[in-house]
Design goal:
Elements (H helix, E strand, L loop, with lengths): L1 E2 L11 H4 L6 H9 L6 E8 L2 E10 L4 E2 L13 E2 L2 E5 L2 E2 L2 E5 L3 E2 L13 H13 L1 E2 L14 H10 L4 H24 L5 H15 L7 E3 L6 E3 L12 E5 L9 H11 L5 E5 L3 E6 L7 H4 E6 L16 H8 L3
Helix pairs in contact: 4-5, 5-6
Length: 323
């Protein structure tokens, strides 16, 4: 299990910082100092007026600080404890579905004690009747790459040096604006994200205004092989999300695009800072298998931070260039 914020550094090397304020830092103190092996942890999410138990786990390890998780969809979650997780049992006669376990008695917050008897009993039932998740090795850290590394990589992939420099200069401008928004623009809308953060990157990569449509047929952004015509079908569709909310929730919309536009071979999710790219390999979309590359403009890496088979910034920017 992972929690953040982790960028300030390991807990036991920065105790003064984490104990200095009664805000989110208090949960890191509890996570590092109060948890012991054998403790039971409930993984929850809100569901209408109740809570859904997604998994129940038993703590098996001591506190660790792992740089592999300094970018989990944009969140820094390096505070870690090893777990044995158990998921709710499968629905009888529907092995692809799990039983939905709903309870009251849990509370808002990332890391809090569970005190309600009903929730405790339901968690214990999941532990007894559920399915253990397979334990996998934690991957090695991805390599951080510099802006110069990215320029060299883009040139190596065939981009003109002047065009590669234009891309990196645009990334600089978007970064500065994104950092300003992080402190002054938390109510940033999707329209502003598309206009001020995403469109400049796409133009720098070589897309012309005549080949891009905004909010075309209920898509956020559609990209076309040539100058747009009414009969044209998009070659790439981008779903934009609000910043600092993660990209996981974009997948459902991307699945809809895949069904509505089966001839489209590239799907992208972005909040203006992070980009996830999916490329169709077979005759039909399978987003899980078609996830190709990820990049965070504030934290460039040579591959996905913790999914070792997924490409990083160089693969993403090359793939986003018009064909």
């Amino acid at each position: 299990m992972l929690i953040g914020a982790g960028d300030p550094g390991p807990y036991f090397s920065n105790k003064e910082y984490y104990k200095g304020h009664r805000n989110w830092r208090a949960q890191v103190v509890r996570f590092a100092e109060k948890v012991t092996k054998g403790d039971i942890v409930v993984l929850k999410r809100p569901y209408k007026r109740e809570w859904q138990i997604r998994a129940v786990g038993i703590v098996t390890g001591d506190y660790e600080y792992l740089e592999q998780f300094n970018d989990v969809e944009g969140w820094d979650l390096q505070h870690c404890r090893r777990m044995e997780w158990v998921c709710p049992p499968k629905v009888q006669d529907q092995p692809e579905k799990r039983k939905m376990v709903l309870v009251k008695g849990l509370s808002m917050g990332t890391f809090k004690a569970v005190k309600k008897r009903e929730a405790i009993e339901e968690a214990e039932r999941v532990l007894k009747e559920g399915e253990k998740k397979q334990i996998t090795e934690i991957p090695q850290s991805a390599r951080n790459i510099s802006d110069e590394d990215l320029v060299e990589s883009l040139i190596g992939k065939g981009l003109r040096p002047a065009d590669a420099e234009t891309v990196i200069q645009t990334i600089w401008r978007v970064r500065r604006l994104a950092r300003w928004y992080a402190h002054h623009g938390r109510d940033l809308s999707e329209h502003e994200i598309r206009t001020f953060l995403i469109v400049p990157i796409m133009l720098a990569l070589g897309w012309s205004e005549q080949r891009i449509k905004i909010e075309w047929k209920n898509t956020d952004m559609s990209f076309f092989h040539g100058v747009y015509k009414r009969t044209e079908k998009p070659s790439m569709i981008l779903e934009s999300k609000r910043a600092w909310e993660g990209l996981h929730y974009a997948e459902r919309q991307l699945e809809k695009y895949a069904k509505l536009f089966p001839e489209c071979c590239y799907l992208v999710a972005s909040d203006g800072i992070r980009y996830q790219l999916y490329v169709k390999h077979g005759s039909e979309w399978n987003l899980k298998d078609d996830f190709k590359a990820y990049a965070n403009l504030l934290n460039l890496k040579d591959r996905h931070p913790y999914l070792e088979h997924i490409g990083g910034a160089p693969d993403l920017f090359v793939s986003l260039m018009p064909k």
